[in-house]
Write a structure and sequence with these properties.
Blueprint (H helix, E strand, L loop, with lengths): L35 E2 L5 E2 L8 E10 L4 E3 L2 E4 L5 E3 L2 E2 L10 E9 L2 E9 L3 E9 L4 E4 L2 E4 L5 E6 L3 E4 L10 E8 L5 E8 L9 E10 L4 E4 L2 E4 L4 E3 L7 E9 L2 E9 L10 E7 L1 E4 L4 E4 L2 E4 L4 E3 L7 E9 L2 E12 L11 E11 L4 E4 L2 E4 L5 E4 L2 E2 L10 E11 L5 E9 L4
Parallel strand pairs: 3-23, 5-9, 6-9, 12-16, 13-16, 19-22, 20-22, 26-29, 27-29, 32-36, 33-36
Antiparallel strand pairs: 1-2, 3-4, 3-8, 4-5, 6-7, 8-9, 10-11, 10-15, 10-17, 11-12, 13-14, 15-16, 17-18, 17-21, 18-19, 21-22, 23-28, 24-25, 25-26, 28-29, 30-31, 30-35, 31-32, 33-34, 35-36
């Protein structure tokens, strides 16, 4: 049975999370909130919280002029904004960026108190695979999908949309997204820098194969030499770090290594985590979200979970294992944002369906799909076999990805009202 690729950005009902020692992406320090029990029944400390305080860690949606977080309007006010820890203008709050911060919630949305925008990597593209919609930077595979925003940055931080076909080897890009269990990054936003505007390469990840004698370690497949670097924090195997430096051959020679510290303690803070899940185990009812292992066995799940689905989870960390988030709710929703895995569009009624080869014909053109195609019905998950001849749909497709018959790949199919 065809299973759609459920990718989205979501909103959640609010929750009072009872948490001690939360470390989300190395972002959230120990948090405690109103009395109750953790996911395994252990009692947690009771401490009243400032009303409406919320810790934020996820992907921005909305528009550049009207940003949203979890489908709520985000009021920037005079909140300090940083980009990878360095001061940045509020105009950097673009859809698709990964934001970590705090805010206060009221009936009008969330008023931001602080925000750090965090890229997963910055560097030059060394290879491109149009068929797979992937490219490589710093020995890291970046996957682009139908919800990825691809943007060209001009002077004054002005952005304009581009397509995957516009990218080329040698382009310097900044990538926001979610690290995946098998390695690589699923991009939510890719910003291509103007010629001559390239910056120093940067990479974020978890330290592996740490050699304190040779002063080297790995971030994924990328080798890092830190002997001449300024190291902020204590390096350790598995620590999440941000590295800045220069690329010499296949080695990133670091000038700075910063171990990500806790975002700060906030008694009684609500916590919302979001991103693209990976390592989905439907039997054990677990998946990985950012650096957390999410146990959703007791959670209310809304939407269809699938590998790579964009989800938000709320709950409490297990008191016995601070890497496990015992979720009370996991929600999957869909967004109309994204231009990454499509360069053509068709709208009209389905005139033919190929059940065996998962093809559909719209506007006299045949498109092929697979298990990763996002199939929707007005924003809700839909199976391919639920589509009907005569349904009016919008198809987003990638002309550079064709099958043996030369048909373009449909990355997104959404059923619309008749006449819409």
């Amino acid at each position: 049975m065809h299973q759609p690729f459920a990718l989205n950005r979501t909103s959640f009902s609010r929750f009072q999370a009872c948490v001690t020692g939360l470390a989300l992406l190395g972002l959230l320090g120990p948090v405690a909130c109103g009395g109750g029990k953790g996911g395994d029944g252990a009692a947690l400390s009771q401490s009243p919280a400032p009303a409406g305080t919320v810790a934020l860690a996820g992907t921005l949606t909305g528009t550049a002029t009207s940003p949203q977080f979890n489908q709520q309007p985000l009021q920037v006010a005079s909140a300090p904004v940083t980009l990878n820890g360095s001061p940045a203008a509020a105009t950097r709050l673009q859809p698709g960026v990964v934001l970590v911060g705090r805010g206060t919630r009221n009936g009008q949305g969330i008023t931001l108190q602080s925000a750090d925008l965090r890229t997963e990597l910055k560097g030059s593209i060394t290879s491109l695979d149009a068929a797979a919609a992937t490219f490589k930077v710093l020995d890291t595979v970046v996957t682009v999908n139908t919800l990825t925003l691809l943007e060209q940055e001009a002077s004054g931080e002005v952005f304009s949309p581009i397509t995957f076909a516009d990218l080329a080897v040698g382009d310097f890009v900044a990538v926001f997204g979610t690290p995946q269990t098998g390695g690589g990054v699923l991009a939510t936003r890719v910003e291509r820098k103007a010629p001559g505007a390239a910056d120093n390469p940067e990479l974020r990840g978890n330290v592996g194969s740490l050699d304190t004698t040779a002063k080297t370690f790995l971030l994924g497949a990328q080798s890092v030499a830190y002997g001449a670097a300024t190291v902020i924090g204590v390096l350790a195997e598995g620590a999440r770090v941000e590295v800045e430096g220069t690329l010499a051959g296949t080695t990133l020679t670091a000038s700075k290594v910063r171990v990500e510290e806790a975002m700060g303690q906030g008694e009684g803070s609500e916590v919302e985590a979001s991103g693209a899940l990976s390592g989905l185990d439907a039997t054990a009812k677990r998946f990985t979200l950012q650096t957390l292992k999410v146990d959703y066995s007791s959670a209310v799940v809304e939407g269809t979970l699938a590998e790579g689905a964009m989800v938000e989870a709320e709950g409490a960390l297990s008191p016995t294992d601070p890497t496990v988030l015992v979720a009370t709710k996991v929600e999957v929703r869909f967004s109309s944002l994204g231009n990454g895995a499509s360069d053509l569009e068709a709208q009209g009624s389905i005139t033919a369906l190929g059940v065996a080869d998962l093809t559909l014909t719209v506007g006299g053109r045949v498109f092929w799909t697979d298990a990763q195609t996002l199939v929707l019905d007005h924003g809700a998950a839909l199976r391919f076999d639920q589509l009907l001849v005569g349904d009016r749909v919008q198809v987003r497709a990638l002309s550079t990805r064709t099958n043996a018959a030369g048909q373009a790949y449909a990355s997104r199919v959404e059923r619309k009202n008749t006449g819409s």
